[in-house]
Amino acid sequence: MKTTIPRIPDHLITPEPVYRARRQLMGLGLASPLLALAGCAGAEDAGLPAPAATAAAGAGGTSPPAEELTRFEDATSYNNFYEFGTGKTDPARYAGTLEPAPWSVVVGGEAEVTGTFPLEDLLAITPVQDRTYRLRCVEGWSMVIPWQGLPLGKVLERFKPNSRAKFVAFTTLADPRQMPGLRYPSINWPYREGLRMDEAMHPLTLLATGMYGKPLPNQNGAPLRLVVPWKYGFKSIKSIIRIDFTQDMPPTSWNQLQPEEYGFYSNVNPDVDHPRWSQRTERRIAGTASKLFAERIPTLPFNGYGDQVASLYAGMDLRQWY
Ligand SMILES: Nc1nc2c(c(=O)[nH]1)N[C@H]1C(S)=C(S)[C@@H](COP(=O)(O)O)O[C@H]1N2
Ligand SMILES: [Mo]
User: Fold this and answer.
1) 3-class SS at 179?
2) Is the dihedral of CA 130, 207, 168, 313 positive or negative?
3) Residue minimizing CA distance to atom 24 of ligand 1
4) Which residues does ligand 1 sit against, CB inside 6 Å?
5) Which of 6, 39, 227, 292 is the most exposed place for a label (fewest CB within 10 A)?
6) Mean pLDDT per segment of 10 residues, for the chain of length 322 residues?
7) Where are the beta strands (DSSP E) in 152-268?
8) From atom 1 of ligand 1, which residue's Cα is the shortest distance away?
9) Is the backbone peptide bond immediately before 190 cis, with ω within 30 degrees of 0?
10) How far is the CA of 40 from the centre of ligand 2 (A)?
């Protein structure tokens, strides 16, 4: 690949109020095509019984009516990023030591084009897009976040994966100097995630570079993270330094830690309970409902993106392949 001069996309340099106004003009694109995501230690209010209204809501994959965005303050102060500690407020408190620039990503494995690429080269592959998605953590809370990023498929194409490439493996930085949480063996570092090739190439899958019209805050996975809106949030790996095309299903951190609790696929599925809590409902942290006042709402199959992604899993038993 040729090195290209980094260009900062417009919306990343638009002041926030302007950006917000523009989004409203865009009609809060939360309707059908695009909208959310989270794997982890435990559900905070695990096992609450589902309210009666729950089940019907998501049937047929119809989109919910306009959903309120999560406030920027909430999306950046209530996080999972174990490299900075296991508490929800640890990442906001301690991720200041992460150095998102300069940054490069190693691309390896079953592809014609491999090597180490400066972040700027990756950003030049395809224009940044706006995508507002639901983010559903396996712990049972959710947010609605306006991301900016590159469609992952467009980026991966550039490396010309070969016919043996069946999966894509992702690795997070693991630098104890920048990441105090690495002192604790909460996870077998580095954090790893993976997708099947067709999941990685799916147009909804985003390589996020920003949120709310600003560059990704460190606690949200600067400078580059995955966002896979139909899967539990732990699939959306942060601060990626390595992407490998593989023949075999790659090992993933949460699955290695607790295979009975976290599968490789981890599609959002209200019908498959976590062994320790129900997945029927979620606590939606959005609008003025900060994390303290959020209500529980029904969880939708594939997090509400079934229209677009259910066909990827045709013929698979979604209870077995969780
Ligand atoms: N490297 C890394 N990526 C990670 C995690 C992590 O601990 N380390 N946590 C995951 C989980 S469990 C969730 S729910 C989301 C949270 O993303 P957010 O903090 O931006 O909302 O990030 C995911 N990506
Ligand atoms: Mo999560």
Assistant:
1) coil
2) negative
3) 237
4) 38-40, 79-83, 135, 137, 172, 191, 220-221, 233-234, 236-239
5) 292
6) 35 36 33 32 39 31 69 97 98 98 98 98 98 98 98 98 98 98 96 98 98 98 98 98 98 96 97 96 90 88 98 93 84
7) 167-172, 192-196, 206-211, 214-215, 225-227, 240-246
8) 238
9) yes
10) 5
Instruction: Match 């790893």 to its residue by tokens.
Output: 192
Give the pLDDT confidence score for residue 65 in this predicted structure: 59
Q: Which atom of ligand 1 is nearest to the CA of 220?
A: 20
Max CA pair span of the chain: 57
Rounded to two decimals, the pTM is 0.83
Q: Which of 40, 44, 74, 80 to mutate to test the pocket of ligand 1 (most atoms within 8 A of CB)?
A: 80
Q: Exposure of 24 by Cβ count < 10 A (0-12 exposed, 13-18 middle, 19+ buried)?
A: exposed
In this prediction, residue 321 carries a pLDDT of 81
Place of tokens 């019907």: 56
> How far does Cα 229 stand from its chain's mean position?
6
Dihedrals phi, psi of 4, to nearest 5 degrees: -125, 150
Q: Which two tokens stand for residue 147?
A: 């991301």
Residue with tokens 């690949």: 1
Compute the distance between CA of residue 16 and CA of residue 236 in angstroms, rounded to an integer: 25
Distance CA 186, CA 178 (A): 17
DSSP 301: G
- Closest ligand 1 atom, residue 37 Cα: 14
CA-nearest of 91, 145, 140 to 287 is 145
- Cβ proximity of 158 and 225 under 8 Å: no
Ligand found nearest the CA of 239: 1
Query: Which residue in the block uniquely carries the two structure tokens 């940054």?
Result: 103
Residue matched to tokens 């939360």: 30
- Residue 145 CA: nearest ligand 1 atom is 21
Q: State which amino acid sits at residue 55.
A: A
